[in-house]
């Protein structure tokens, strides 16, 4: 009898626990509220890819490392309760609302599907060690720009909207919507991706922690599992932002950039 009661309690606790989407919404909205306090009252979140402010029904959880790649992880890793799929993939919210550009609908399912359609394929090739030997220029660019897009999302997930709202965030958001052509002015340092063989050791720490960040002058070297790529960075996102002082040291000053191209 008592066993049944305990089970019932557990079931209720599970129902009460916020979903992954709700948890991400709370975390991301609290962070965004540092820059735009009224998002809480208006029940909005900014999509970190397209920049639109939207209500919860227009967002969904994105697995940063695609589910296609995650499913191919070693069996011991997949069965390890310490490394469930969400942990191995990393998660963030991206919008699902149709994208319009200059009045024309150019993609029906928002940034969440845009990422899946344009970037998950090339990235899965890297994660599974299946990058073709003789790739053309277009294929090479798709790998690099896919790497930039994924590294950008990983930085937002780790350091918050400061990454989106600094000037380099605008550059990366624009690049996100140009999956086969480099944005004008993007330095050569950012047009290269380095990748190795996929990890196979079940005890490798990358399963629990697939992203690593090393800060450099005006850039960050982002490691995502078995690839590394440089990401442009206008400022160090770890340096606190001064909000209440009129005169602040230059490195603390920050002017958020909310530019978007979409409606
Ligand atoms: Zn979006």
Side-by-side strand order of the widest sheet: 7-10-9-8
Number of strands: 10
Largest sheet: 4 strands, antiparallel
Amount of helix = 25-40%
How much is the radius of gyration in Å?
20 Å
Order of helices and strands: HHHEEEHHHEEEHHHHHEEEE
The amount of beta strand, in percent, is: 15-25%
Bound molecules: zinc ion
Oligomer: single chain
Count of separate structural domains? 1
Structural class: alpha+beta
Q: How would you state the average pLDDT, rounded?
A: 88
Shape: globular
* Terminal CA distance: 57 Å
**Helix count, DSSP H or I runs of 4 or more residues:** 11
Low-confidence stretches: 1-10
Task: Describe, in plain words, how this protein is organized in 3D.
It is a single chain. The chain has helices at 2-16, 20-32, 39-42, 67-70, 75-79, 85-89, 110-118, 120-127, 137-159, 162-165, 167-176; strands spanning 45-46, 53-54, 59-63, 91-95, 99-101, 104-107, 193-195, 211-216, 219-224, 227-232. The chain starts with a helix and ends in a 31-residue tail after the last strand. It has one domain (2-252). It is of the alpha+beta class and 263 residues long. Helix content is 38%, strand content 16%. Mean pLDDT is 88; it is low at 1-10. It has a four-stranded antiparallel β-sheet, with helices on one face. A hairpin with a 2-residue loop joins strand 8 (211-216) and strand 9. The site of zinc ion has 8 residues, from strand 4 and helix 7. Zinc ion (ZN) is lined by residues 47, 49-50, 52, 94-95, 110-111.
């Amino acid at each position: 009898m008592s066993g049944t009661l305990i089970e019932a309690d557990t079931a209720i606790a599970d129902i009460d626990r916020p979903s992954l989407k709700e948890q991400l919404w709370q975390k991301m909205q609290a962070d965004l509220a540092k820059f735009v306090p009224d998002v809480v009252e208006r029940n909005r979140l900014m999509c970190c890819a397209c920049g639109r402010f939207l209500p919860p029904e227009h967002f969904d959880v994105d697995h940063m490392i695609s589910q296609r790649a995650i499913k191919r992880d070693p069996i011991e890793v997949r069965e390890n309760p310490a490394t469930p799929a969400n942990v191995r993939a990393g998660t963030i919210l991206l919008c699902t609302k149709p994208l319009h550009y200059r009045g024309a609908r150019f993609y029906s399912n928002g940034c969440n599907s845009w990422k899946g359609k344009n970037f998950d394929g090339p990235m899965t090739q890297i994660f599974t060690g299946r990058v073709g030997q003789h790739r053309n220029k277009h294929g090479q660019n798709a790998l690099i720009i896919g790497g930039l897009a994924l590294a950008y999302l990983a930085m937002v997930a780790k350091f918050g909207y400061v990454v989106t709202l600094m000037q380099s965030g605008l550059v990366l958001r624009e690049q996100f919507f140009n999956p086969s052509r480099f944005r004008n002015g993007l330095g050569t340092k950012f047009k290269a991706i380095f990748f190795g063989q996929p990890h196979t050791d079940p005890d490798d720490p990358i399963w629990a922690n697939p992203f690593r960040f090393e800060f450099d002058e005006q850039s960050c070297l982002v490691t995502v599992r078995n690839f590394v790529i440089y990401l442009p960075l206008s400022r160090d996102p770890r340096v606190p932002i001064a909000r209440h002082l009129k005169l602040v040291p230059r490195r603390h000053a920050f002017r958020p950039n909310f530019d978007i191209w979409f409606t």
